[in-house]
Structure formats: C-alpha cells, structure tokens
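== Fold encoding ==
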Amino acid sequence: MKKFGLLLLGLFAASFAFAQEDEEGSTMGQPIRKPVEFAWEQVDVGEFSDPIPYAPVRQADVMYYYTIWRTIDLREKVNHPLYFPTETKGTWRSLSQTIFDAIDMANPEKTEGVLTIYSDEMCTLPFSRDEIRGNLSEVSQIPEIDLETGEEIGTKEMVVEYEPKQVISYNVKEIWYFDKQASRFYVQILEIEPIIEHERANSSSFDYDGGEGGSDENEVRGTMTKKRVGYIYYNELRPFLAKQEVYNVKNNAQRLSYDDLITWKRDFASYIYKEANVYDRDIQDYIANSRDQRIESEKITERLRTFESDLWEF
C-alpha cells in the first residue's frame, strides 16, 4: 500500500512539474543556445556602437549638389551578398529580411522601435500599419471545389503575404554635393525603395506604375509583375543595418555590417535611371532603346566622377 501511495505521489509530482512547464511555456522547439557558427565566442554585433554619423555640413558650404536615382538589381552577381540567404541562417540575414524584421508586422500593435514606410518620395506621409500590411500582401481569388462532385462552385479570397526573397531590386535616391569647407565631393543616400516581383494573382492588384488594373495582356494570371512596397527614409533604416552582419566575400573574419557595405564602402552594382531635370522625367522617357539608356546612365556617372577633379588647377 505504501508503494502504491508513493507511486501516486510521484505521478502527481510529475504532472505538477509538467503543468508548471506548460504554464511557463514549453521549451520544445525552442533554441537552447546561440547559433553554432564559430569555434570561438562570438560578440553580438548589436553590442557595437550606433551608425557612424555623416560629416557635418552647413548649407552655406554646399556650392554644388546633384540628385540622382539609381536601381540596385539583386540578380547581378556582385549584389548577391545583399540578396542571400533567402532564409535566415543563424545570425545571417539578407537585406530584405533585415528590412522586413525592422518593419515587424508580426506585432501589429507595436508602434515604437519599428521602421516607418512612407507613401511619398519626400518621406513626409507615413503609411499606417494596416496600409503597410496591405503593401506586403496580396488578396488572391482561389476556386472553391465541391468535394462530392469535384466541380468549381465559386471562389474565395485568401491573403498571401510576400516573402523577403521576392524583393529583387531597390530604387535608391541619393544626393551628391561638394563641400567647399572640406574641399570634398560627398554622397548620401536619402531614401530607398524595395521592389517586389511576384506572380499576378488577379486583375485587382496594383501594377508597378502605381495604377490599378492595366492592359488585358498584363492581367493574365501567372505573369510576373513588380510592386512597390513604399519609401524608406535611409537615416531611419541605418540603425537596423548597422546591427546586421553581411557576408564578406573577401574575408569571413572581417566583420562588416550592411551599413558599412552600402553607406561607406558602396560595394554594390547599380545603374542610374533618372537625374534631376526640369521635366522630372526618367531616362526611359526620352530614350527608348535599353542599350542607349545604359550609355546615358554611364555618361551621368562619368560626369559625377570627373566633377571634383575638374575643380583643381595644376
């Protein structure tokens, strides 16, 4: 009888401990340590300082400035460190995943400490959390099938969220200016715009140009289309970039953040699609041939390269 009583007591204690574990939250499927990536203790990159500030500049010292817009195509090989990995691996995340995590749509009630998305290029009109959620998802019409007859009896809506790996390019607005006090030609990124490429589900989705619908040819289900997420003020994005490591193709032991790679090293390939002009038009608006568009882009790039050197006299 004593043995039976001890057995019941043991079972009760085990069930109580199990209940306590459930109440506090089960550890099943939860990580037990930091990702095993190195043979040494790794310092968290988030413990480092904030992004390096830009050199101070006064408006009176800016004797010349020029605004350009460029596209960073992640399908180019040199830009692969910005695109991969397509899935988070330990502490390694892609640029788009870093941006999606900074937006933090998994916590809809959270309003502080998250990245703001703007509807205008001047970054003055922020999207609401619901509008951002709409920009990062698409409502698809899927058929309803009668399980008995196998016939289609109607359609129903299903919300499909975009994945970070669907961001295939970025539009970047930057300003080049000459500071006469420092006698240097500087460049700063003003805003960045992720572009998502996805399969068009129905004719109600927005096209790349910002309008609804489009031609019948573009509304065929299954065609790939581009969608703008919104504009991101780059200075608000930099604190998130500074805390995320990026793969260094030259030396894995040399720590780099996305802020180092993009802001200071500018280690990416891109092409200019627009320069400041009185007509406010893109290069493709006055040059139809894609080859000539690239030639025009290179002309603008070369003009920026030679501007500073042309100021010197020997």
Notes: Helices lie at 2-24, 80-83, 95-103, 129-135, 234-242, 258-264, 283-286, 290-310. Confidence is low (pLDDT under 50) at residues 16-24, 203-220. The first strand starts at residue 62 and ends at 73. The chain has eight helices and eight strands.
